[in-house]
Amino acid sequence: MKFRDFTINSHSTREYVDESLEIEDISSIKTYLNELNELVGKKMGFSFILMENGAAVYRELQGFGGYGGLMIKSPHYIGLRIDKVDHEIEFLGAFYMQGIVKKLYEMNIGSCWISLLNTTPEQKVKLIKDQPGTIKHLLALGKPLKKIKKNERFKAIINRLSKYDQDPYGIAVIQIDEDRLSVVDTIYLKKWGTVAPFSEMEKRGVLDILYYVRNSPSFQNSQPCRLILQDGYAELAVINPENEENYTDAGIMMFNLHGLAKEMSFPSIWRFIRDESDNKEYRIVARIEM
């Protein structure tokens, strides 16, 4: 499956069939989470917890979890536990959590990010039980109540200049949410605030990547991420750096950016940057070769 297809066809599932996933699917998910915990999580300060009894989690968090306390009901949840509140851990945890979203998408399982911003410390302790640290996000998962038909899926293409282009059969080729910021609002050239011209993005061969990566989800669709194009690489920055959720959104953005860049044959090597400046407007959080 092309990564571009994932970025335009993966949507948050908010309604689920009221039944558990198949045993085989649960087993595959457990194996995948265990691998992530052993290979990266243990070293980087986070872990993923599969919560099979979704009904109990929902009862505990109803009125607290999710945006405005609107908790999403699902048969299962995956928790992102972090050792401590730290920008790098939150960024990396979100990067790999979005990888789980892609894995579930490939298994035809719906999912949705859930913020635990308004939950109490006691509720978080119940979720992670005897494990140290805290938990700030869940992933709801299960069988989608409404399945997307093949003819309702968007087609992933490259080398189209128009974000609203359509093929002769009336199928949108790049899905762009009207509420999202345009490319020119989120991409800078060399320094903060200097808009990157379309001609420059096209010359560098990154225009298609930047169109697709705009579909990256963010808390309350706030779109806090910006890219600063440098020579041979791009810097990923967040606005309003005092907002902890923005580092999670940046991790999600980096997962999508890395996947798209790799698919389009860019080096795509990236690393986290701990910006210790006191800049209140923005901070650099990562860089990627492209």
From TrEMBL:
Segments passing through the bilayer: none
GO molecular function: oxidoreductase activity
Pfam annotation, one family: TM1586_NiRdase
Domain Putative nitroreductase TM1586 stretches: 11-167
UniProt-listed InterPro entries: Nitroreductase-like, TM1586_NiRdase
Protein name: Putative nitroreductase TM1586 domain-containing protein
Organism whose genome encodes this protein: Acetobacterium bakii
